[in-house]
Every structure is written in C-alpha cells, then in structure tokens.
From TrEMBL:
One of its GO terms (molecular function) is oxidoreductase activity, acting on the CH-CH group of donors. Gene3D superfamilies: Aldolase class I (3.20.20.70). Transmembrane segments: none annotated. GO terms for cellular component: cytoplasm. The keyword Oxidoreductase applies. It comes from marine metagenome. This is Dihydroorotate dehydrogenase catalytic domain-containing protein. The keyword Transmembrane does not apply. Keywords: Oxidoreductase.
Length: 243
C-alpha cells in the first residue's frame, strides 16, 4: 500500500495518528546536540525564506536537534527516525543507541551542515544488516551520481531510496518545484538499472494530488510530503484525496 511520509523536520510535529497510511519521519537527529526547539525556531526565523527566483523555499537550518538520545525517546516504533553523521564514527555510536527494530532514514545529503571532510558512507551498512526494521531508507541528494547509487544499493544493501533532499544553492537548501525534474530523473535511473527491486519514496515539490499521481505513474512507490507542510492545513486534504 502506498504510504505518505511526513518529511523531517515536519514529522516531529505533524503526526496524523488516525491515518494508517501516513508515516512521520522525525529528526534529523545527530550524535551530539545541536540545540533544541528554541534554536530550531531561531534558525527558521532567520534563514527560512520563499525565493521567488527559484520559486521555492530556501533554508540554512543546519539540523538543529537535541541529539540522538532525545530522538530515540521521541520517536515511536511505527515512526521513522532520521539520522545524520557529522563526524567520522558517529554512525558506529548511533547504531549502539538505536534499537534494531526501529525504522530509519539515513540522511546523507543535508546541504546546510559542516561535515567531517573524511566522512565515508561505508558505516551506513551497520544499519542495513537488521532484518527487523520495516524501513531502512537512504535519503539522497538530487545531484547523486549513478555510481554513488550503485554503491549504496549493491555494496551497502539499501532497498529503499528517498529521492530526494534539498538542492544546494547559494542561499542554502532549496525545496519546492525546482526539485521535480531531479526526482523524475532519479526515479527513471533507479527503475532502468534496478527494476522493481528498490522501493522509491519520491519527494520534492509535492503540492497537490497531480504531483502525487505524476510521481506514482513514473514509478515511485511512496510519497514524501515536505513542501506542502509549509501550509500544514492543506496536508490532510491532500491525504484524503487518495482514500
């Protein structure tokens, strides 16, 4: 059954518990605290802008969160915990904290944080080995290459791909309709090279039921809602249109 995923950070707040086909994604959580709700609100106020040139939202939130220890307490087993690595070895620490039946989304592509330049994706295989997780999703950049996808799918073992994260621009990470061509391209690449063996979550610029249908027709299995969550009163109406 097709699911709607409420993209992080919106999944921290928008739960829709009465809808079995809606799955919140909380986070993104990092090993160490990067500030709590007050810092998040400050970052939203300072950096979140609608850019008429790009016709989308830009932000430089930088993953403000109180850390993974708080994240695991705030995330139910029927929700998805989004995690990110900022320093080499963070994933080795996080895997010891997160239960092996907690669904995960590994965020490899946030454009608004400073990472350790020597970070490798190798440690993500620590999470794909558990058969108890309903979801073990990798969230990729709109600029990911086919060789990088091949590594994540064939070497690391990811079976669920979220296409895609925000687009890096000078003003930060760009979300909105600009992402749709990138998502369409990635869906085609995955289907052409790996067929139906990969579960695709498509997200980027989804604002109405036509955008949902377009992604599903192209080959997506599920839909991630982010853009529409900037106007949260519209989310439930969109979800109801597929009931």
């Amino acid at each position: 059954m097709m699911k709607y995923f409420i993209a992080a950070p919106f999944g921290n707040y928008l739960k829709y518990k009465s809808y079995p086909d809606v799955v919140p994604v909380t986070g993104t959580w990092t090993m160490e605290s990067r500030g709590g709700i007050l810092k998040r609100l400050w970052k939203i106020g300072v950096t979140l802008r609608y850019n008429s040139t790009y016709q989308g939202w830009t932000n430089k939130l930088g993953l403000p969160n109180p850390g993974i220890l708080v994240g695991v307490k705030k995330t139910a087993l029927n929700e998805i915990l989004s995690i990110g690595e900022l320093e080499s070895g963070d994933f080795k620490k996080i895997v010891e904290i997160v239960s092996d039946d907690q669904s995960l989304e590994i965020n490899l592509s946030c454009p608004n944080v400073e990472h350790d330049k020597n970070l490798s994706w190798d440690d993500t295989r620590l999470f794909t080995t558990s058969s108890k997780r309903k979801y073990c999703i990798v969230k990729v950049s709109p600029l990911i290459t086919i060789d990088e996808l091949k590594f994540l799918i064939e070497e690391i073992g990811f079976k669920q791909i979220h296409c895609c994260n925000t687009l890096p621009v000078r003003e930060g990470g760009l979300s909105g309709k600009t992402l749709r061509p990138y998502v369409n391209k990635l869906i085609n690449i995955i289907r052409d090279n790996w067929g139906d063996s990969i579960e695709i979550i498509a997200g980027g610029g989804v604002e109405n039921i036509q955008h949902v249908d377009d992604y599903l027709t192209l080959g997506a299995d599920h839909i991630s809602l982010g853009t529409i969550c900037f106007t949260p009163w519209r989310v439930k109406a969109l979800i109801n249109k597929r009931d």
